Amino acid sequence: MAIRVAFIRYNYDPYGGAERFTDSVMRGLAERGIEVHIFARKWAGASSFRVIPHLIGGPEWPSLLRHATFAHLVCRAVGKERFDLIHSNERTLCQDVYRAGDGVHAQWLQLRYNHSSRLKKLSIRLNPFHHYLCRLERLLFEDPRLKAVIVNSHMVRNEILSRFRIHQDSIHVIYNGVDLKRFHPRHRENIGEHFRKLNGVTESTSVILLVGSGFERKGVEPLMRAVAASRGDSLLWIVGKGRKDRYEKTAGELGIRELTRFFGPREDVVPFFSAADIFALPTVYDPFPTAVLEAMASGLPVITTAQCGAAEIIKEGNNGFVVESPTDVDGIARGLARLFSHEVREFMSKEARRCAEGFPMERTLTEIEGLYRRLLSLPQDAFP
User: What residues have CB less than 8 Å from 215, skipping those under 6 apart?
Assistant: First the structure.
């Protein structure tokens, strides 16, 4: 009899790295013979492969009611069936396994607070949604029924251990995986060159790419300031969801409006990675964005911050650069200037790809399977 696993994720959005990752994991586990169910408010990807969808109703607004209602209704729905394991990627209180792919909300709030204006700080402190989520987060991590927590970086593991009463053996670091065929440097010669020509980019111009939604958190403004300070022959491409009006105004004030382009959310990001030369993500907080691995697999050196879990795989000056925080605009600009050199970039591109090859999606799936097997006390050959 097949192992039955229920996944919980609020929504499927083909533009979101976390959702794409969950989709890939479920697809891979289903192909390996596990009976996979997804409980979600909306999951358009489930119908295309062997995953059984269960749609959960509820209000879309406001955020507190939306989240609280979903957490209640999804646990009630999951409880009506029998599953060997309940694997949640959302903060709920009915899972056996919780994947903290969004990191620690309390940590994100602290970092956001540190980078905010006085008015924004007051808004953060008074927002009832943040109080609710921090309370739920504590209940989740300290729930004695929780069997395991999956994190995608040691950074998040350390944050959990420092904030909550949970045994260290319950937390398992399983890094994100990447499709090494879909994201590959060889695509630059066909997909990339065509896409550059389509967008009027000359061979000598360096394309700096940021892929991510939520422009404040991803560090769009400090990146624009660094691009302006670096004074190189470059273009800045930004792919993802976010309100661009404020940032277009900032780009104009910095004198780089003509060098900056917002492409919006895109389901297929391969052309962007194939056409770019540098990937920059000076994020305020990110547990381990899949986009970093996709960039490195495509042969792009990476510039990010110490508050990004992916900094753990960056070797300074070898496959990328890590600055202490997004406020270090000069540090970001120095990294860009180094990478404007074709010789430097060529070397670091090869090292970036070499690093990414250590994180195939198959490795991630095998490690998740192994954790399931240990939790269920199953033998090595329990999975097909």
Answer: 221, 238, 240, 242, 243, 244, 247
DSSP annotation of 267 reads S
Residue-level pLDDT, tens digit, the chain, 384 residues: 689 999 999 987 767 777 778 888 998 999 999 999 999 998 876 545 688 999 999 998 999 999 999 999 999 999 999 999 999 999 999 999 999 999 999 999 999 999 889 999 999 999 999 999 999 999 999 999 999 999 999 999 999 999 999 999 999 999 999 999 999 999 999 999 999 999 999 999 999 999 999 999 999 999 999 999 998 899 999 999 999 999 999 999 999 999 999 999 998 999 999 999 999 999 999 999 999 999 999 999 999 999 999 999 999 999 999 999 999 999 999 999 999 999 999 999 999 999 999 999 999 999 999 999 999 998 765 555
42: Cβ–Cβ under 8 A, 6 or more apart, which residues? 11, 12, 55
What's the topology of domain 4-177+360-375? Rossmann fold (3.40.50)
Q: Which amino acid is at 87?
A: H
Give the residue range(s) of CATH 3.40.50.2000 domains in the chain: 4-177+360-375, 185-356
